[in-house]
Amino acid sequence: MRQKKYILLGVLLMLLSFLSACREEIEITEVLAFDFSCSNSMDLLSAERYSLDYTGEYYIAFVKPALVPESEAIYCTVNESFVRELEELLRKYEIGKWNGFHKSSKFAMDGDSFQLNIRMQDGDSLEADGYMKRPKNYSSFVTELAALFGKLEGSNVEIREIESFDFYYSNGYAAYSDQVYTLEYVDGGYIAKIKPAFVPEEEELSFPVEESFARELEDLLREYEIGRWHGFQWSDSGVLDGDFFGLSVRMQGDTHIRANGYMAWPRNYGDFSAAVEAQFEKLRE
Could you report the per-residue pLDDT of 2-14, keeping only the tens digit for each? Predict the structure, then answer.
């Protein structure tokens, strides 16, 4: 009987040790990725989301305040001073102690929820989430976080003369399913290319075009405010074999627009893609 008690005590100690490890405090060092979201109800517009991601060259921030549709969310590049401010905010409210917080109320319906994921340069990561349960300093942290990200303004790259343009999209991962439209300035003239969907790259179509074609494309970039797309990098990891797109524009003065998405699209995407397709497809007539 006594032996069974010792065994039970040992199991309890191991369980306590495991639970303690799960809630191990994480030191806030240099942040590489940050993603915080919360919602006050089941209403999709009530959701807030603030994220930061390091691409290997620069940081991209995503800002979606409450009551703002995701199509009007802000994407922009930020400098390292912004990242340092975020790190200080995380230390101020001891967010490292949130690691392993996973609590929910089984008796509340249509309530508040939050989720936080942080990845540091040293490899450490923090995960926390709650439904009608909040860790210490939650309200103060969220208020200051919203204020910090709220200062950001979306990217708006000035549209200049195009040197190269590459736009592609696909409705799935089937072989050769991507549709590609490119324009490049080569040896004093522009070359437009079309790779239709389900056609291998070696069968793409090539057309010499006048400068007016490039100016018309630049007008589309201005009309649909594509300069605001710069830095858009978003995906829905919950969808398999979905739609994706990519855009890369290089202009005079080494100015760039880069954007890509998987089951996520920036503002005016549908109208812009249709206009680009119409302009390029006229070359085949």
Answer: 555 545 555 454 5
